[in-house]
Write a structure and sequence with these properties.
globular; 22% strand; 172 residues; alpha+beta
């Protein structure tokens, strides 16, 4: 696969925190995706593995894919970081997405992944909540790594969101 655009090239790059070229990350990604004959199936396998194997618990700090792989614990940031590393390791363009998601009447800060299926088609993955693809309650603000996410933190607490319900869409 040769990425044609700067966006796709960046979505394949290894970085300080998303160590997709590290031998342990690569070995895990190959093991998880063994037998998957297309990107959709490979990403489903990565998603299932993350959902089942990474304990859901809040973690204070900056996530590193290698740390998450070793400790097997984390919240949405850790899941997204390791998801991106695993996907990139098997040459699937993937970027982290940060924003808000609506659950049980409230909005929460959220991180998830967007992965390219080929020919410009993308799928969103929230392996912390077990969503493949992630549902429409996910509102993306930023695509990218930690540098881009820091800009989002400045908005938190200043946003005012109002949920408007359309009575015609309610169940009878």
């Amino acid at each position: 696969l040769k990425a044609q655009t700067p966006f796709l090239r960046k979505a394949l790059q290894s970085s300080h925190l998303v160590q997709s070229r590290h031998p342990r990350i690569h070995a895990q990604a190959v093991s998880i995706t063994k037998g998957a004959n297309n990107r959709w199936k490979a990403l489903q396998a990565i998603h299932r593995w993350l959902f089942r194997r990474i304990r859901k618990r809040s973690v204070v700090g900056i996530p590193s894919a290698l740390d998450v792989l070793q400790k097997k614990v984390g919240d949405c940031k850790e899941h997204a970081t390791l998801c991106a590393a695993l996907a990139r390791s098997v040459r699937i363009p993937c970027h982290m997405v940060s924003g808000l998601a609506f659950l049980r009447g409230r909005f929460y800060f959220r991180a998830w992944c967007g992965c390219e299926l080929g020919k410009g088609k993308w799928v969103t993955i929230d392996s912390t909540w077990g969503q493949f693809p992630a549902d429409v309650s996910h509102i993306a603000f930023i695509r990218g790594g930690l540098n881009q996410q820091m800009g989002l933190m400045q908005l938190m607490g200043k946003l005012k969101l109002i949920v408007v319900e359309d009575p015609s869409l309610q169940r009878k």
